[in-house]
Amino acid sequence: MKPTDPSGGSMSELGLVADGVTFGYSRSSPVLDAVRAVVPRGGLIGILGPNGSGKTTLLRLLAGLQAPWRGQVRLDGVDLKSMGRAAVARRIAVVPQETQLAFDYTVLELAVMGRYPHLGTFDVEGPEDLSIALDALRATGTDRLTSRLFNTLSGGEKQRVIIAAALAQFSSRDSPCDTGTEVLLLDEPTASLDLAYQLEIRSILLELNRTRGLTIVISTHDLNLAAGLCRDLVLLARGRVLAAGPVRSMLEPALIRTLYDVDVDVTTNPRTGHLTIVPVARAGHGMDAKP
Amino acid sequence: MTITRRIALTWLVWGSGAVLVCLVSPLMGSTTIDLRRVFSSSIPFGDNLDAQIFFVARLPRVLAGAMVGSALAASGVVFQALLRNPLATPFTLGVSAGAALGAMLALTFNLPSGIAGFSAIPIASFAGSLGAVAIVYGLARAKHRGMSTNVLLLAGVTLNSFFSALILFVQFLADYTQTFRTVRWLMGDLDVSSYAPLLAAVPPLGLSFAAFAVLPKRMNLLSISDESAASRGVDVHRTQRLAFLSASLATGAAVSLGGPVGFIGIIIPHLVRLMVGADHRLVLPASAFGGAAFLVLCDTISRTALSPLEVPVGVITAIIGGPFFLWLLIRNR
Description:
Oligomer: heterodimer
Mean pLDDT of chain A: 89
Structural class of chain B: mainly alpha
Strand content of chain B: under 5%
Distance between the termini of chain A: 62 Å
Low-confidence stretches of chain B: none
Shape of chain B: globular
Largest interface: A-B, 32 and 30 residues
Order of helices and strands of chain B: HHHHHHHHHHHHHH
Shape of chain A: globular
Number of helices of chain A: 9
Number of strands of chain A: 12
Number of helices of chain B: 14
Distance between the termini of chain B: 33 Å
Strand order of the largest sheet of chain A: 6-7-8-3-9-10
Structural class of chain A: alpha/beta
């Protein structure tokens, strides 16, 4: 028997777990209904589902930004609700789809803001915080942009800087195993980027996962990105988990048809070795373009 | 340069600039006085005309300008960060007008002179600004992602004309002598003529500046997005409430002291950002000092430009601020 804590989570459960979470923004209609999602330490998980299926809401719950009505979200076996805001922020960071600034912050200023959960009310960032922020910028290849204004960067550069600012939230500089699982949650991070930048973000995330052991959860509409990046997928449909498991067993034409109501061809690309998904037609509509 | 040194330098440079302006301004006016004579210890105060003009006639007014200017500029910074829009100010949002309505009601109907020792006018003024801020806050919350310039400007125009109509109605009810007094005050009037109104404004301003002191780092994160602040451990709702409450308090106190002087909240923070960057740990103190210096300068112009006639200081700031605002509007997409 594994030792368990009173909240029901296993003490030796390493990673981020949404355990039967139900949540909604208005009393009457829950957005998520008894959702279970397991993100093991060092995992690379994708959340897929059509618009309105609850992907973003699930990410918000995983980040501790919303508390579930029922169920709990646990980090390494500890209920997020019992951790302080700052304690959660030192272990879980969020990258939004797009960031637009009303004010001209520099790249370095933004990266250093990631250190907020490590500082007291009147503390200013010290040399240690600065070097952690610079490390984070280096990890995303943006360390040569430090004094540039964020608003003057390209879309891809912006997203890399935002990822760096999120990395700067974590306390450790190399191995997360010393302090606990560190999780990066990304909400459709490539949706507003062009093709080259999408590939760039993908390789940065793969690298962070490989070298730092960073745990990554990404919500996306891009099935091919999910195929080339994630190891496991959670398929969300109308607030419930349709299926969850390794990428190859999730990207099945039958499942995708149920999820999106679209017929797809799934093949393995000989050059990348990844699955490639080509949408063919709305389900039940046959081929929409015949030669 | 480390952030600690930049903060220290900001306080030093902008602070001494503001003090300098406050010392020089009382020297100017219809009667020329000499700073050495003012502070001369060999002449008794009763015989020292220069000292009397400096301390009795001019300094209260200069200090009023400094307090009003710094409160309005700092409130502007807070509104801008929270609504994520550099065009938000107490004046453009209609918060000043709300405060003015409150103060007008107290002034016109001679409300009992105070609750718990505080004068009724600042309290009524605070109530007015709080009401306006509550509407603005509601609009911003309903829109989730801060406030677009369109919503902000429309809300501001609406609130301003709404409160102006009520102010006109109150004036309509008031008698002729009162109307003259209030119209003068509505144009911005720093002629306080004693230290008493200054002292009445100290507690509310002190409270709001104490709140401003804990906000800058959180304002940095909130000015990116609520989400990004929350995911870094900021208690977003508590911070928003504290910020809006303290900015309303500061605006209420400033308006009850000097009338709804416009555009300081936009000119100063903008110029400050051009000089010190966007970090609120620098922008907030620099704007507070800059706002003080700016309004004192404008009031010096108002006292001396058409002497012995006095141009209302609100007219001066509007003449500078109106075109500036339009220029910003064009520049900000």
